[in-house]
Fold:
Amino acid sequence: VSSQLVDLQIFAAPRIILKPLVPTFPCFTNIVVSLMEKPHIDFGMRVLGGDIMSIPGLYQFVQETIKKQVASLYLWPQSLEIPVLDASTAAIKKPVGILHVKVVRALKLLKMDLLGSSDPYVKLSLSGERLSAKKTTIKKKNLNPEWNENFKLIVKDPQSQLLNLNVYDWDKVGGHDRLGTQVVPLKLLTPHETKEFTLDLLKSTSISDPQNKKHRGKIVLELTYAPFREDSDGFSGPLDGYGRKESGIDRGSSNEIPSGAGLLLVTVQGAEDVEGERHNNPYALILFRGETKKSKMIRRTRDPLWNEDFQFMLEEPPVSEKIHIEVMSKRTGIGFRSKESLGHVDISLADVVHNGRINQKYHLIDSKNGMIHVELRWKTI
Structure:
């Protein structure tokens, strides 16, 4: 049976952001598109010569379903991010601080369950980040939940980023209903000063949504933005071959170990001459304190370029610890022994803590000629 889509019309109010700006043409790396209101999509559908959209009730049902699905994905602050430049060719913003979030409580939430209650929890994230959202615990059968739970989020641009807050009603079966949403621009915060917010929850962040007038409860937060300490961010020395460096920092001038919480930033630039016995589809694994992070896989190459950042938020400097980085290869098809190691390295973090930054190439252990290029930074709050 053949079908035909006819007379397609789309009416929408898009919000388009070109970011981040870089010196490489076309001067931005991503196009970020959001919708400021639910779109209207009009079309006809012909099946066996007849327009099935003329069936009573079907047209309105399809319209509302499309609006709901599209709005859940792309209605601001949700967005569609379209990459224009490869991250390896552009200057990507680095972390500049930590946002401390204390989710205190919510008040007078909507009743979503049949017994006149809700099971609320909060999801929070920063705009422009692909990291998974943080979540509070679930408070069963409570319209005035008390959480007093703390979270840390990595900030890259305090002037433009938003803290996205969504309160949900947990359901054992099916999707979780959203009770309300809000956003907080980070530019409202003064560094190192804790600020309390009591926010009215909204149906959506669209200004024109008439359902925002309905009372959906409040959420109480405490926010503190802690920028990293200013430092020279100096390079630990020019590379001299592979794995050797001439330090540009007079380490004898100070034996003081930086104290306090901070961020360990690991940038895996790439690898050279990595070769597997059965396949060459390399990716990098970063293991630290029981946590494992993974880069993208690049197919059919012995010289992969990843240029990917990985972050670890720590309560104290890792002066006596090592980080394990391993290059793996994975078979793209179905077969036995689908994974194999192409080499690994264990890097002491003492120099990173003392110097603030190290950028080196390391020989891979258990690899004939393999090298890996890693940049490590320690930022103290």
